[in-house]
Amino acid sequence: MIVAASISCTGLVALPQAASAAPATVPGCGTFDFEPVIYLEYVGQGGAGSGLGCPVGNSKTTGNGRARYHDFQNGSIYWNRLVANSQPATVMNPIRDKWANLNWENGFLGLPVNDTFPVYGSNGLLGAFNVFEGGAIFTSALGTYEVHGQILSKMWEVGVQTIGLPMSDEQDFSNDGGKVTEFQQGQIYWWADTGPISIKGRIRVSYAGLHMHERTDDNFGGSKDEPYAILSAVWPGTANNKKTYNTPEYSLGDSNTDCEENNAELYVGRPNGIELVSTVMEHDYGDKDAARRKADEYAKKAADWVIGQVQAMGPIGLGIAKFGGPILRDAFREIGALLGGWFGDELVGTRNKLLTPKDMVKLAVAPRSVYDCIGYKVASDQLEGYGGKYQTYFNITVVP
């Protein structure tokens, strides 16, 4: 609360605090009935010469009887009279308009608990905000948005300087009860079983390595397998929603693991869900490029099916994550296993790994596990064929 040392410069006369409103004349505006506490706050801010402007009507009581308030041209002053020693709180536009759209004090935000305060950054004034009983409203050149609950708590913890100001209200995110609020530098996600998770950037999915648990039976008299993996990623989207990658051919005998550093990127973007398809081949004499084309055909059919499903829904923005998992799961059920044909090389096996939006967010901030020499976040199910058993490994990280 701003309290003026003198009110003589305003041309207003301070009223004694009383149990009911009393008339006061505001030069250039007129005479209005004021709640005394609200009047003193208005005078302290400079009256009609402040950012509030002239009064609009008289002081009123909120519908639930908890507070007294007075509207002005550019904002309002609220006083929660049921709370001992409470101070009046000023809510300026456009925050007031946003609060009105959320049903004023009758909505989940409740009453304001502080004045509209500025938010400063390294480049000066960024915006302003009000804290309410049930959350906060921020306004800036990006728009005016509410943040509440555990997402707001996480935002305070992370810091506005780190994650930036909000760029959206809290939104439904995934089909398992997820929520998200967009910020300038990232997002804060929430699920009931995870609490809030801050992601400052985008999610990157990459290949981490291949491990041989058992060699295949037929090595043409050799003592080693010469496997390679074909990895396909498919995600929800309306275009460019797949990628296929061939690993190098490995020679695995005494060592069962490819221990070279692998970081082949399969996806970068929002955690809307992703299907990772691992195909492991044991190279004998076949055409590896032909095998890759076959796998890419499999992925393309699934990706095209996903595009059709997403386009049929119309524009859904962030809500695409609500449908990502089910769409991907249905895609691979609809397309079926196209990789069962003959390649010339031995097909050890194909496995699909569906990562939901929640999986992607949780894995992105989780510590890496290590198997043998592979650092990873998630592994495929075992791929088995011709007596061989293999697994592929992936990393999920946060990148700018």
Count of discrete structural domains: 3
What structural category do the secondary elements indicate?
A: alpha+beta
Name of the CATH first level of the largest domain? Mainly Beta
Provide the β-strand percentage band.
Answer: 35-45%
**Shape summary:** elongated
Question: How many helical stretches?
Answer: 7
- Terminus-to-terminus distance: 40 Å
| Reported CATH architecture of the largest domain | Sandwich
Name the average pLDDT.
86
As for the CATH topology of the largest domain, it is Immunoglobulin-like
Q: Report the C-alpha radius of gyration, rounded.
A: 30 Å
Helix fraction, binned, reads: 10-25%
Low-confidence residue ranges: 1-19, 336-343
Query: How many distinct beta strands?
Result: 25
Question: Can you put this structure into words, describing what you see?
Answer:
The chain has 400 residues and is an alpha+beta fold. The protein contains seven helices and 25 strands. A hairpin with a 2-residue loop joins strand 24 (383-385) and strand 25. The relative contact order is 0.10. It has three domains: 1-90, no CATH class; 93-200, no CATH class; 202-399, Sandwich (Immunoglobulin-like), CATH 2.60.40. The model is unreliable at 1-19 and 336-343 (pLDDT under 50). The chain has helices at 36-45, 95-101, 149-158, 160-163, 288-313, 320-335, 357-365, and strands spanning 22-26, 30-34, 55-61, 67-72, 75-80, 89-92, 117-121, 124-132, 135-140, 143-147, 171-172, 179-183, 186-191, 195-199, 202-214, 227-234, 242-246, 265-269, 274-282, 346-355, 369-371, 374-376, 378-379, 383-385, 388-399.
